[in-house]
Structure formats: structure tokens, C-alpha cells
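Now for today's protein:

——
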Amino acid sequence: MTGVDNIPIATLQTSKIHCKKFLKALVMEQNLSFDQLPKAVTMLTKEVSELKSLLLAKKAQTEPKQTETWFDLNDLVKYDPEKRTKPTWYSKISRNEVPYYKRGKKVYFLKSEIDEWLKTGKRKTNTEIEQEAQEFLSNKKKGLHYGK
């Protein structure tokens, strides 16, 4: 089970116990008066924030990194939005048009690289083309020197 920010409940409970002990020790050790409690609570809140950030950092370090997704040719044919056939893919491979890896006779593809490759075929919208033309013309005018 997890609690705040997916930190395990046991860890949160342990932290809560430590905070209570810390506050009790602080009050006992410091002989705090009622007027000094707000300052002590502020200090405790900062300590808890630091503990939380340390726990989150430790959690981030211990989480396994996501591994890349590999496709073989059959997976790629299924994944391809255009549903190109195997012979089409073999043709693209032979012309080095698509990123691939080869082990023996088998070819493999990284999903992330295929996604990037698919994005390279993006066509610009009319608005994007007009914007680029305006930028080009405005830069061109700035670069022209009139007169002598």
C-alpha cells in the first residue's frame, strides 16, 4: 500500500513516528513555552518537507528504469499506422530509409526510433508555411540596406 506521492505506508508511518518523537524531544529538551510552539511547528514542517523530498529522491533512484520497446518485423507491421507490408519494409531496410538493427538474419527496431522516423514525414500546415514566409520576409527586410 502507498500513501502520499506513492510513498509506502510503512515509510510514512515510520516518518510520522520520527516526527512525533522529534517534536516530543524538542519540547522536552527545549522546555518550550506555548508562545514558542508556532516557531517549533514551523521548524518541524521544514524538517518534514526535507524528509519527504529525501524519500521521493530515494524512491526515484530505486525505481527501475523503463527499458526500450523492441519490435521484430511482424510487430512493426502491426504497429505501423500505414499498415505497410513486409516486402515494403524490407525494401525500406535495404535502402536504409528506416532505422533498424540486425542480428543474424533477423531485423529489429526500437519503438522510439520508429516513432521519430514516422514524425520526420510531417507536412507543414498552411498556417506554418505562412508564418515562416512572414519571418523570412521580415528578416530579409531587416538585412537590406537602402541608399549608398
